[in-house]
Amino acid sequence: MTKKNGDQDEQWDRGWREHKTRQLVRLARLPLAEKLSWLEGAQTLVDALAFARKERVNGTRGHGV
Q1: DSSP 2-65
Q2: What pLDDT was estimated at residue 30?
Q3: Is residue 22 packed enough to be buried (19+ CB in 10 Å), middle (13-18) or exposed (0-12)?
Q4: Residues 62 and 39 in one domain
Q5: Is the same domain home to 25 and 44?
Q6: Residue range of the domain that includes 24
Q7: pTM score, two decimals?
Q8: What pLDDT score was predicted for residue 3?
């Protein structure tokens, strides 16, 4: 199956391996500035998840859990 994405045609990936390979190629083609932006966003998410986990753990202390 083919889908349109702007001016380029893309084929739907078949299975996990094909998806993984094509995704790595797409990410490799990103300019450095976009890669850094993606990494900063990922780090922000990791920090938020770590903070939420810490709050959840601290919030359960002393409550018999």
Answers
A1: EEEETTEEEEPP-HHHHHHHHHHHHHHTS-HHHHHHHHHHHHHHHHHHHHHHHHHHHHHTTTT-
A2: 94
A3: middle
A4: yes
A5: no
A6: 1-30
A7: 0.55
A8: 52
State how far the Cα of 53 lies from the Cα of 59, in Å rounded to an integer.
10
Burial letters for 41-58: b for 16+ Cβ neighbours within 10 Å, e otherwise? eeeeeeeeeeeeeeeeee
Cα dihedral across residues 55, 58, 60, 65: positive or negative: positive
For position 10, what pLDDT does the model report? 67
Is residue 24 domain-shared with residue 48, that is, in the same domain? no
Distance CA 11, CA 25 (A): 14
Whether residue 52 is found in the same domain as residue 24: no
